[in-house]
Structures are given as structure tokens and as C-alpha cells.
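Protein in question passed on here:
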Amino acid sequence: MSISSLFLAHVALVTVGVIRYEAIETDIIKIPLGGNTEADKARLKKIIDQLDHPHKDKILPYTDPRPYTGNGTTLSDKHIIPEYRYPDNARVKIHNGAEMYEMTRTGLQVRV
């Protein structure tokens, strides 16, 4: 079973909301890479165009302000947490059994 998490930031990043659900449409999930500016995204697109790799379609050129890192993992000095993203135009179905949690900076998760 593939479990996906969608992180929704709360005020001042004191806690984040997490929705965990079984991902059915796994073929459209991408790894966001890029940076914090459009120049970062353009530079990555050039690199991707030159790649000869069977999984290059899994990379999503993407930009977002910090704390987004652009390297495929979250910004943490304690944990390596991979980031995954559905393309912005994707329509994702969240099926019965999804769970919602509130997670603190210390990693404590409380089911809501």
C-alpha cells in the first residue's frame, strides 16, 4: 500500500496539517525540483532536457518560496523527508480511510 501525505502549513509553521491517504494515481506523482526563483526552474528545465534517463518524466520543475529547498527533500536539519507533488492540474481522489493529523515541530502527531 502506498501512503501519501499532503502537508498544509499553518500560521507561523508552529504546526502543520497532514492528510494521509492511499495514493491510487501514483503514476502522476512527481518529485519537485527547482528552487526559489523562475531562474532556478529554467536552469533545471535545461538540465532535464539534456537527460537521457527513463524516469526523467518523474521530475516536476517547480518553484516555491522558502522553506522549499528545490532538491526533492524538506528543509530539516534532523530528518530527510522526501517531497512528492501532484501537478497543479491533477485531480486527485482521496478515498475513504484518509486520516488527518496535526504535527508539531518536535514531530508529535495528533489525530484530528
Observations:
- Strands lie at 3-9, 15-22, 31-35, 59-63, 99-104, 109-111.
- Residues 1-11 have pLDDT under 50 and may be disordered.
